[in-house]
Amino acid sequence: MAARRYDPERRQRIIDAAIRVVGAKGIAGLSHRTVAAEADVPLGSTTYHFKTLDDLLVAALRQANEGFAKVVREHGGALADPGADLAAELARLTGAWLDGDRPGAELEYELYLAALRRPALRPVAAEWCEQVTELIARRTDRVTARATVALIDGVCLQVLLTGGAYDEAYAHEVLARVIDGPQAGEPRPDGETGSPRRGRAG
Amino acid sequence: MAARRYDPERRQRIIDAAIRVVGAKGIAGLSHRTVAAEADVPLGSTTYHFKTLDDLLVAALRQANEGFAKVVREHGGALADPGADLAAELARLTGAWLDGDRPGAELEYELYLAALRRPALRPVAAEWCEQVTELIARRTDRVTARATVALIDGVCLQVLLTGGAYDEAYAHEVLARVIDGPQAGEPRPDGETGSPRRGRAG
DNA sequence: CAACGTTGTGTACCCTCGTACACATGGGAT
DNA sequence: ATCCCATGTGTACGAGGGTACACAACGTTG
């Protein structure tokens, strides 16, 4: 089966190392040499598998995105359940992601935001954004889904930029406003932890 | 006084150059040498005025933040007017900022987001965030203000990351949900001109 | 007026980076 | 078995980076 000296595991190890490096020193600290050292492979190996750093970044971002997807898979079962409170589910999920692996979340965001300046990263960033929107759009309309993603992005950003703690109740409250906005007044079927009618503001 | 050779204008020119450099090549392309070249000053001059690059970044971010403040000053007169539709005002303002000077907006965001990894930048980023929140909080409660800022951040991020156009109607719509959410379960009038009573929760 | 120290400038050093390229290895075709 | 080339590795080179430090200019002070 083909693989004579071809070693896919090596490539994977380099990506893992790249993610660790970015996590530890940021994208600014990423270089062929630093990943090579971290992955314990020769310099030539990194340049062989990834002609340019952008290629490596793309692979890293792609893999990092799996982090959130994994959280969704593990904790997001109720997401698809039409009976569940979508805003509460999302708030809980975001919390699980943020608190469960904060460095990982920071890393994913750094990679994600890097797309701002690196055209090579844009497609994969956009793709991820689209996927999440799609996921949420199964429970509402597309406009609401997009706005929800934007809001989550903003909330996470504030948390990460200020280094503060994630406030799930707050997130739930404001997410509910965006999500329930279009069909306002209609009480939600499931009470959950909070009142279906949000009457108090923080 | 007595500053015959003391030249504050020189320092300012370096900051301006740094902003131009970041705008053109991103933070990754920023170095003492590149700013020196851009500002047409000797290399030693940049290191003299800014011991470290972070210092320069801080100054640049601080000045870049003025960009949005300026837009607020010029186009945000109605912001303070309690009779105006806050969501509409913010949507308009954001559009003016985004479309009026897109490269500038990109640059400000890059600087702003850089705080994620550079502790030195966090205080000034947080400060700016706080200022905007404060500004909006004059028209609503703090929780709503914070959420509004988060949403605007997220929307801008989506626009900038995808390179797409800013949709003011969309922004208005979702901003209204967050802003008007707390006080009423009543459906918003689709005609956005008829501004429903804003008003604070509490 | 002259010496001195603060302020500003120019240069040189050493480091790390990406890239190029010569060299090793081993499976598959003949 | 032998040759070939995709696969993988090690090293050297030029570019550009931050920093250190010697030097120039000028205000101050005795």
Q: What features would you highlight for this structure?
A:
Tetracycline Repressor, domain 2, homodimer, 202 residues, mainly alpha, HTH-type_TetR-like_transc_reg (chains A, B), DNA-binding, DNA-binding (chains A, B), TetR_C_31 (chains A, B), disordered C terminus, Homeodomain-like_sf (chains A, B), TetR family transcriptional regulator (chains A, B)
* Number of helices, where a helix is a run of at least 4 consecutive DSSP H or I residues of chain A: 9
> Residue ranges of chain A: pLDDT <50 for 5 or more in a row?
184-202
The most extensive interface, with participating residues per chain, is: A-B, 48 and 49 residues
Could you state the CATH homologous superfamily of the largest domain in chain A? Tetracycline Repressor, domain 2
The first-to-last residue Cα distance of chain A is 61 Å
Strand content of chain A: under 5%
Q: What is the CATH architecture descriptor of the largest domain in chain A? A: Orthogonal Bundle
The oligomeric state is homodimer
Helix content of chain A: 55-70%
**Average pLDDT over all residues of chain A:** 84
The SS-based structural class of chain A is mainly alpha
Protein name (chains A, B): TetR family transcriptional regulator
Keywords (chains A, B): DNA-binding
DNA-binding region (chains A, B): 31-50
Domain HTH tetR-type (chains A, B): 8-68
Plain-language structure description:
The structure is a homodimer of 202-residue chains. Chain A is mostly helical. Chain A folds into two domains: 10-57, Homeodomain-like (Arc Repressor Mutant, subunit A), CATH 1.10.10; 65-180, Orthogonal Bundle (Tetracycline Repressor, domain 2). Chain A is built from nine helices and no strands. Chain A has helices at 8-25, 32-39, 43-49, 53-75, 86-100, 102-113, 122-137, 142-162, 168-180.
